[in-house]
Amino acid sequence: MRAWEADDGEGQDERLSTSSDYGHRAAADHGPAASYAPYLRTGQTLYLSGHLARRNGAVWIGRLGDDIALEEGRSAARATAIDLLATLQHATGNLDSIARIAKLTVMVASMPNFFEQHLVANGASELFGEVFPDMGPHARSAFGVVQLPLRACVEIELIAELAPPGAA
Question: For the chain, what is the domain count?
Answer without folding.
Answer: 1
